[in-house]
Amino acid sequence: MPSPLGPLDGRPFAAVVFDMDGTLIDSTAVVVRSWIRWAQEHDVDPRRLQGFHGVPAAAIVAELLPGPRHQDALRRITELELADTDGIEVLPGAAEALAALAPAHSAIATSCTAPLAAARIEASGLKAPEVLVTADDVERGKPHPDPFLLASRRLGVDPAHCLVVEDAPGGLAAARAAGCATLAVVTTTPREELGDAADAVVTDLSHVVFSRTGGGVLVSPAPPGSR
Q1: Which residues pair with 106 in a beta bridge?
Q2: What is the pLDDT of residues 173-224, one digit of tens each?
Q3: InterPro entries under this entry (predicted)?
Q4: What is the reported pTM?
Q5: Quick one: CA torsion of 190, 124, 29, 169, rounded to 10 degrees?
Q6: What are the residue ranges spanned by the domains of the chain?
Q7: What is the pLDDT of residues 76-120, one digit of tens each?
């Protein structure tokens, strides 16, 4: 019977780079509340917010409100998101995945700014890896490859030997552009929208097990009944 992980099963990786929101933590309600309020305050049709999941806030604001209103609008969404962390939770399997890869075989590459990433990590209680790449660290965020290229460089590994775990098409595109292998989780995006963009797709991180061997990091299907 074919493995649900396809070409990823049994392939050794030097490290794993995780997206944060929607991959390791559930912040969907917070994100929706903040951006809906922002849209209402700035006379932006909330329907225009669709399709931006995983894109840095600065790029979203620049697309929706170019020109002289940009800086004030960006400052406002930053305020709203930093002020609202109620209900953020660690997603299934996320803590176990990071623990299995600690201390030096994983990183987070997020479209959040550094202050927002810190606030959400603290609110979730997640024990984050030492390498954390945020929107403040790169000139171009996802869907450009820069976040994953920087994460792999800070880990000291070749991007071609990295596995990226993502929940959004834009993040998967960024990982592919960086030359990384990709594993998608179906936490915020329908499976049919992820299949062609990823090497493999699973429901969430509780469906896989990460292990470290002499040859590197392996990802395998979780045993039946373990979830």
Answers
A1: 16
A2: 999 999 999 999 999 998 988 878 899 999 999 999 999 988 899 999 998 7
A3: HAD-like_sf, HAD-like_SPP, HAD-SF_hydro_IA, HAD_2, HAD_sf, PGP-like_dom2
A4: 0.90
A5: -30
A6: 6-27+88-221, 28-83
A7: 999 999 999 999 999 999 999 999 998 889 999 999 999 999 999
Tell which CATH architecture fits domain 6-27+88-221: 3-Layer(aba) Sandwich (3.40)
Evaluate whether 195 touches 6 at the Cβ level (below 8 Å).
Answer: no
Residue 118's Cβ-count burial label (10 Å; 0-12, 13-18, 19+) is middle
Among candidates 182, 186, 180, which has minimal Cα distance to 202? 186
Query: How far is it, in rounded angstroms, from Cα 30 to Cα 82?
Result: 10
Active site residues: 19, 21
Neighbouring CB atoms inside 10 A of 190's CB total 8
Q: Please compute, for residue 58, the number of CA atoms within 13 A of its CA located in the half-sphere on the CB side.
A: 12
